Amino acid sequence: MNVHYIFPFLVVCVMFLISYFLSEAATGFKYLFGVVIPYLAILTFVAGVTYRMMNWAKSAVPFRIPTTAGQQKSLPWIKPNQFDNPSSKFGVLVRMLLEILVFRSLFRNTKFRMSEDAQSSYEMEKWLWLGALVFHWAFLVTLVRHLRFFTEPVPQALMLLESLDGFMQVMLPGLMLSGVALLAAATYLFLRRIFLPQVKYISLSSDYFPLFLIIGIAASGILMRYVPDLKIDVTAAKELSMGLVTLRPTIPEGVDGIFFVHVFMVSALLAYFPFSKLMHLGGIFLSPTRNTTTNTREARHVNPWNYPVKVHTYDEYEDDFREKMIEAGLPVEKE
Amino acid sequence: MNDKKWIVLGLVVFFAIVLFPVWYNRGKAAPAPEVWLSDTAKAAETCVKPLEDIRRNHMHLLDQWRDTVSREGKRVFVAWNDKEYYPGLTTTCLGCHEDKAKFCDRCHNYASVSPYCWDCHINPKEMNYGKK
User: Fold this and answer.
1) What is the ipTM of this complex?
2) Which of A57, A280, A302, B79 is 20 to 30 A away from residue A316, measured at CA?
3) What is the pTM for the complete model shown?
């Protein structure tokens, strides 16, 4: 047992119970969980993300930080690594795209091992990369699919995505692969944190809390879509979400139960986002080790806010003291 | 630093994407569609399940029907009000809800679902010989 995960787990459980039972208890609470909290959450998200990004924008990035995994461009006969140590803007673009879309630096993840005769070795370790990749892409697809609740008429491209996501055509309503993949990957990322001792050692509540929230969101979504007794009235749910985005909030009849748990947890995630590690969404774009060209040998980088230093050159010095120097027998450059 | 303008631009683009539903819908009200009940349905008064239940769970019911008919060979369904139905998609559902376009499709377009059932099952309205 470990307070770092017990505490966030309890918080998420309490959130579940509160939103479920209060929204069952009175219509006023439905308004709270279905309208007031979502609006507050999105406002917090927008304001918080703006604040964090502008705060980062203010910080100093005077120099290039070539922490790279490739040969820097130097002498013509040494082959540089274009994308791992890019000296051109294009190379940086490719590096950023690879990082953001397929998590290239995570792909390099290795595991340290000491053999019996005290030989150390680094081994390939791709599971974290795979889990993270599945998690993020499944989350994105799930998020985009949800636009069907926020657009009327629903764009054609969205229906295409849905039919791709549900191409297995099992169960009714049709099984969406991204939702299951999201839940599975988030669960894996959580289990990894409690079963690998080294990872457990460095995991804090702020690592577990978002994971539990996301697991809760995915689980509540899956429950209210596939489980007959928990199934919600989807048409009514869309009326509610359309009310939110058209700024005509309503609580239609027929929305109840787990739907409010789902919405409450999503709101919590949104509001928590700017103040947590989740800000890596914006942070990755601002990582100097990823987004700067490594041209430290080609160009001189002068700290742009160096204040002008008053210098006194030797020439000026000699001008000031020439007579005294000659008197003292010191050599001078100009007689 | 001098990257500020790019960061601001990035933020603006990001929020434009996040708030896509707001500017896409332009505040147009989008209430749930009215479904059309045929005279046959009105005469029957109730569906094969209570209203709340059929609204939420008709896909599960169809799934069960499909299995009971095609796997177990049972071709009778006893409803909650003790009425007996043939568990069939075209015959029964569309027998009462005669106009798929004005009933099923209205809801489904709103919720953006397009059941693939109609790849095989027919909608009598669309068949010439369905009309007398």
Assistant:
1) 0.89
2) A302
3) 0.90
